[in-house]
C-alpha cells in the first residue's frame, strides 16, 4: 500500500493541529525535560495512533513510498524536536525489527514504545554490543546513547556476531541496566542513556531471525532513518531561518536593519542553501549515492546552516535560553543521527 | 606534531617545529626566543593544572552561572598569571604581548573560558594604555602585583556592549548610529554615569571597571569616552550573571550604572575614543583572540586524534582508516593555518601597531635593568605620578603612523575572523569523525564546540571584523553604512 499526497496532507494538517493545541506543554517539555512529561507526550501520541505507522504489512514505521514516517517526524519537530527524535527512534526500531515488531500482546517483549540507538550507523562505527558465541549464546557489552531507554518497553539494538556481521536483538528493558540520562549537546528531551548488558541466552533478549534482519532489511531501516533524520533537520533549519530573518529585520545596526547588510544577507543565503541541500539529500537518499553519503550531506549542511543562523543573532543568540541557541544545539545533535 | 609537555622547560627543537615563524632571524622586541619558549611551557603547565577542573566546573556553571571560580582563580594566582605582562620594574614578570599571547594560546587549547577569564583583565589595561594614562597604569600594576601576592586577584573588566548596541561600538562607522542607552553626564564632582551594560566578561568578579560610555548619547561618535569605575562605588551594581551557552568559566554580567558619580580624573580620554584609540586596542585584542582560535583548533585536533586512536574501526582504529586520516589531516591543516594567521597579526602589531610601544627593545631592556625596589622609592613614585608621564605617553601614541594602526587593525580583525572559523571547522570535523560521541557532554567535545562558538561573536562579530579589515585595507573612508 502506498500513501498518496492527499493522505499526507491530511496527516500534516492533523499533526499541525495537535502541535498547535499542545504548543505550551511541548515547549515546556523542551525547556525542562522530565521523564514524566515525556511519558505523557508519548502516551498521547500512542493514543492518536502514531506509535505504529505500518502501511505495507512488512515494515512497520515505513510505508511503501517512505514518506509517512518522515512527514510525522518533520511536523512534530516544529513543536518539539525531542519528541520527534523519540518517535524517529521508535520508527527506526520498528523498521529494524521488520514483521517481528508486531509481537503478540502476551509476549514478554510486546509493548508500545521501542528504544534504539539512532546515532549508531549499522554499516560503520564501533559496535560495542556483541554475541561472542553466536545467536544462541550470551549477549554482552554496552550500547551507548540509546534514545528512549528509560521509557521504552523494549530496546532494539544491533550486536556483532562472531562472523563480524550485525544482527538485531530485542531486549526487555526490565532486564537491562540503563544508566542515568547522558547529557548531550542538544535534543535533551529525547533522553539518551547507556545500556550495559550481560545476559545469558534467552534471559530477557531475543535475537531476530535472519529472514527479517538480513543486510537488505537493515539497509531498509537505514534508508528510513536517513529520510526521517533529513526531515527532522529540515524542519529545524526552517524554524532557524524564520527566527534569523525575524531577528535580522528587527535588529538595527549602523542606522539600518541588519537584513540589509551584505554580510547578513550572505549568512541568510548560506542558511537557505543548507536547507535546500538537506531537503534534496534527505528526499532521495538513493540519488545521493548511498544512505551514508546522504547522511553525510545532511549532517554537513545542517551544521553549516545552524552556524549561519546562530551568527545572525550575534551575542543575543548565545544565551542559554535564547530559542536560536536551543535550536542550534538541537540541529547539531540531529546532524549526527544515523552515525 | 603538537604534543603537550607539562614540564617547566620546553626543548628548543619542539618550539622550532611548532613555531617556525618565531625562529626566523629578525628582532621583534629583542629576539626573545627563550622568553617565548618559557611562555609556551608556562601555558602548558597552567593548562595541565586547569584540565581536571574544566568539565565539572562547566556543569556547575550551567546550573548556576554565579558559582565561585575560586579554584581557577587560585591556580592563576599561584602561577602569577595576572602579573605576567606587568613590567619587571613594577614587580611583574615583564612578558611581551607576544609571549602573553603564546601563554594564552596554550590555555585556550585546554579551556577557552579560562583563557578569556585571564585575558579580559588585560583588555581593560589595554584601553587605559591606549588612552595614554600611564599614571593610572603604573598604580594599577602595583595593585595587581600586591593583591596577587596576597592571594586576592585584583581583576578588571571592560564594559562596552549594550542591549541595543552590540558590535556597533566596535566600528567607528557604526558608533554614530549606535543606540546607546548609557550616558556620562558632566556634573560638578565629575561625571554621573547612567545606563546598563551587558555581556561584560568578568564584570561580576572585577574590582575595577573600564566603562565605555558617551558623554552625550546624541553624539556618541564625538563623545565616546572611557571611565574608570570602582565596583564598590555607590550606583554601580551587578544586575545579573548571564546564562551563557559556553565559555562559562568567564562569567558575563549585566552591569547597572544608576547615577554613579565618578571624579573628573576617572575619565581616561580627552578626545573621543571612537576611531584611532579603539582601533589601537582592537587591533591588539583581536590578534590575541585570534590566538584563542589557534589554541582551540589545536586542542580539538589533539583530543580528536587521541580519541580516534582508541576507536576500533575494521581491523585497526579510526586513526588508521583512510577517512579518519583525511579528516584528522584537515584538522591539523586548520590548526596550523590558524597559528600562522594569528602570529602574523601579532608580529605585525608588535612592529607597527599599538604593541610596538610596549615591545620597544630599549624599553624592555631598561625594564629588565630597573629593579622594582627602585620604582618603589618616593622620588620615583613622585615622578611616576606626574602628568608629564601621561603627556609623554600621548606623544608616543600619536607617533604611531595611521597606516600602522589601520593595517594592524585589519590584520587583527582578519586573523580573529579566520582563526575562529578554522576552530569552528575543526569542531564540525570532530562531529563528522566521531559522530554522536562528539556530542556527549562527558566527552568534553560539546564544551569545546560551545566555547568556540563565542569566538565568532566577541570583539566584534566576524562579519564586522571582515568589513573592518576590508575598509582599512582598501582605504575606503566613507562613513556610509555598507
Structure, described:
The complex is a heterodimer of chains A (339) and B (482). Chain A has 339 residues and is an alpha+beta fold. Chain A is built from eleven helices and ten strands. Chain A is elongated, with a radius of gyration of 20 Å. Chain A starts with a helix and ends in a 5-residue tail after the last helix. Chain B is α+β, with helices and mostly antiparallel strands and 482 residues long. Chain B has a four-stranded antiparallel β-sheet with strand order 2-3-7-6, covered by helices on one side. Chain B has a three-stranded mixed β-sheet with strand order 1-4-5. Chain B is globular and about 80 Å long. Chains A and B meet through strand 9, helix 8, helix 10 and helix 11 of A and strand 8, helix 16, helix 17 and helix 18 of B.
Number of strands of chain B: 9
Category from helices, strands and their pairing of chain B: alpha+beta
The residue fraction in helices of chain B comes out at 40-55%
Mean pLDDT of chain B: 89
Helicity of chain A, in percent? Answer: 40-55%
Radius of gyration of chain A: 20 Å
Query: Which oligomeric state applies?
Result: heterodimer
Determine the structural class of chain A based on helices, strands and strand pairing. Answer: alpha+beta
Summarize the structure.
The complex is a heterodimer of chains A (339) and B (482). With 339 residues, chain A is an alpha+beta fold.
Amino acid at each position: 500500500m502506498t500513501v498518496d499526497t492527499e493522505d499526507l496532507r491530511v496527516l500534516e494538517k492533523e499533526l499541525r493541529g495537535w502541535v498547535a493545541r499542545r504548543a505550551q506543554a511541548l515547549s515546556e517539555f523542551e525547556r525542562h525535560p522530565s521523564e514524566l512529561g515525556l511519558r505523557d507526550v508519548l502516551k498521547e501520541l500512542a493514543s492518536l495512533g502514531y506509535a505504529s505507522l505500518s502501511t505495507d504489512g512488512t515494515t512497520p514505521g515505513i510505508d511503501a513510498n517512505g514518506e509517512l514516517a518522515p512527514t510525522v517526524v518533520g511536523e512534530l519537530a516544529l513543536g518539539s524536536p525531542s519528541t520527534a527524535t523519540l518517535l524517529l527512534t521508535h520508527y527506526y526500531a520498528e523498521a529494524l525489527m521488520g514483521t517481528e515488531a508486531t509481537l503478540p500482546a502476551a509476549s514478554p517483549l510486546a509493548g508500545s514504545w521501542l528504544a534504539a540507538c539512532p546515532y549508531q550507523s549499522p554499516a560503520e562505527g564501533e559496535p560495542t554490543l556483541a554475541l561472542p558465541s553466536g545467536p544462541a549464546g550470551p549477549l554482552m557489552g554496552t550500547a551507548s546513547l540509546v534514545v528512549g531507554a528509560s521509557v521504552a518497553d523494549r530496546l532494539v539494538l544491533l550486536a556483532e556476531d562472531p562472523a563480524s556481521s550485525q544482527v538485531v536483538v530485542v531486549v526487555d528493558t526490565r532486564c537491562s541496566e540503563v544508566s542515568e540520562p547522558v547529557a548531550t549537546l542538544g535534543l535533551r528531551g529525547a533522553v539518551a542513556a547507556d545500556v550495559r548488558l550481560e545476559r545469558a541466552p534467552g534471559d530477557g533478549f531475543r535475537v531476530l531471525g535472519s529472514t527479517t534482519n538480513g543486510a537488505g532489511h537493515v539497509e531498509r531501516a537505514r534508508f528510513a532513518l536517513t529520510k526521517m533524520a533529513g526531515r527532522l533537520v529540515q524542519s529545524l533549519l526552517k524554524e532557524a531561518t524564520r527566527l534569523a530573518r525575524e531577528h535580522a529585520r528587527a535588529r538595527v545596526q549602523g542606522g539600518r536593519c541588519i537584513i540589509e547588510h551584505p554580510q547578513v544577507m550572505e549568512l541568510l543565503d548560506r542558511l537557505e542553501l543548507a536547507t535546500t541541500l538537506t531537503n534534496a539529500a534527505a528526499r532521495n537518499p538513493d540519488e545521493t549515492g548511498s544512505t551514508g553519503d546522504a547522511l553525510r550531506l545532511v549532517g554537513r549542511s545542517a551544521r553549516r546552516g545552524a552556524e549561519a543562523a546562530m551568527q545572525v543573532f550575534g551575542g543575543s543568540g548565545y544565551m542559554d535560553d535564547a530559542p536560536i541557541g536551543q535550536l542550534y544545539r538541537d540541529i547539531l545533535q540531529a546532524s549526527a543521527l544515523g552515525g | 606534531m603538537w604534543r603537550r609537555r607539562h614540564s617547566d622547560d620546553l626543548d628548543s627543537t619542539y618550539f622550532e617545529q611548532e613555531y617556525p615563524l618565531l625562529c626566523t632571524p629578525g628582532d621583534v622586541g629583542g629576539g626573545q626566543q627563550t622568553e617565548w619558549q618559557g611562555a609556551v611551557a608556562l601555558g602548558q603547565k597552567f593548562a595541565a593544572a586547569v584540565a581536571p577542573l574544566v568539565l565539572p566546573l562547566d556543569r556547575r556553571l550551567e546550573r548556576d552561572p554565579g558559582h565561585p571560580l575560586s579554584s581557577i582563580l587560585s591556580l592563576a594566582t599561584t602561577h602569577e598569571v595576572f602579573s605576567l605582562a606587568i613590567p619587571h620594574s613594577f614587580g611583574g614578570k615583564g612578558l611581551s604581548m607576544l609571549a602573553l599571547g603564546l601563554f594564552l594560546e596554550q590555555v585556550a587549547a585546554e579551556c577557552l573560558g579560562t583563557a578569556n577569564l585571564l585575558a579580559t583583565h588585560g583588555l581593560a589595561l589595554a584601553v587605559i594604555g591606549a588612552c595614554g594614562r600611564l599614571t593610572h597604569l603604573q598604580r594599577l600594576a602595583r595593585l595587581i602585583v600586591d593583591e596577587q601576592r596576597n592571594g586576592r586577584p585584583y581583576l578588571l573588566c571592560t564594559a562596552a556592549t549594550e542591549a541595543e548596541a552590540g558590535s556597533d561600538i566596535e566600528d567607528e562607522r557604526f558608533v554614530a548610529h549606535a543606540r546607546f542607552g548609557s550616558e556620562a553626564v558632566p556634573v560638578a564632582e565629575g561625571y554621573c554615569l547612567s545606563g546598563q551594560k551587558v555581556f561584560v566578561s568578568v564584570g561580576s568578579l572585577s574590582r575595577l571597571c573600564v566603562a565605555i560610555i558617551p558623554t552625550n548619547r546624541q553624539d556618541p561618535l564625538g563623545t565616546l569616552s572611557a571611565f574608570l569605575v570602582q565596583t564598590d562605588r555607590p550606583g554601580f551594581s551587578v544586575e545579573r550573571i548571564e546564562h551563557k551557552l559556553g565559555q562559562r568559566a568567564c562569567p558575563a554580567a549585566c552591569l547597572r550604572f544608576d547615577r554613579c558619580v565618578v571624579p573628573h580624573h576617572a575619565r581616561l580620554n580627552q578626545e573621543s575614543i571612537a576611531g584611532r584609540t579603539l582601533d589601537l586596542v582592537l587591533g591588539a585584542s583581536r590578534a590575541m583572540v585570534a590566538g584563542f582560535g589557534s589554541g582551540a583548533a589545536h586542542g580539538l585536533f589533539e583530543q580528536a586524534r587521541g580519541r580516534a586512536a582508541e576507536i576500533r574501526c575494521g581491523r585497526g582504529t579510526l586513526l588508521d582508516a583512510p577517512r579518519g586520516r583525511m579528516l584528522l589531516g584537515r584538522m591539523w591543516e586548520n590548526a596550523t593555518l590558524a597559528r600562522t594567521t594569528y602570529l602574523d597579526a601579532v608580529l605585525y602589531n608588535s612592529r607597527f601597531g599599538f604593541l610596538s610601544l610596549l615591545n620597544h627593545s630599549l624599553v624592555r631592556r631598561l625594564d629588565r635593568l630597573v629593579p622594582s625596589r627602585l620604582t618603589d622609592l618616593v622620588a620615583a613614585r613622585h615622578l611616576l605620578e606626574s602628568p608629564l608621564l601621561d603627556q609623554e605617553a600621548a606623544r608616543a601614541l600619536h607617533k604611531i603612523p595611521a597606516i600602522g594602526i589601520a593595517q594592524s587593525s585589519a590584520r587583527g580583525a582578519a586573523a580573529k575572523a579566520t582563526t575562529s572559523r578554522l576552530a569552528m571547522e575543526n569542531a564540525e570535523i570532530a562531529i563528522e569523525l566521531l559522530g554522536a560521541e562528539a556530542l556527549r557532554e562527558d566527552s568534553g567535545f560539546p564544551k569545546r564546540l560551545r566555547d568556540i562558538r563565542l569566538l565568532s561573536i566577541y570583539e566584534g562579530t566576524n562579519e564586522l571584523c571582515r568589513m573592518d579589515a576590508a575598509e582599512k585595507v582598501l582605504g575606503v573612508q566613507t562613513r556610509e553604512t555598507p
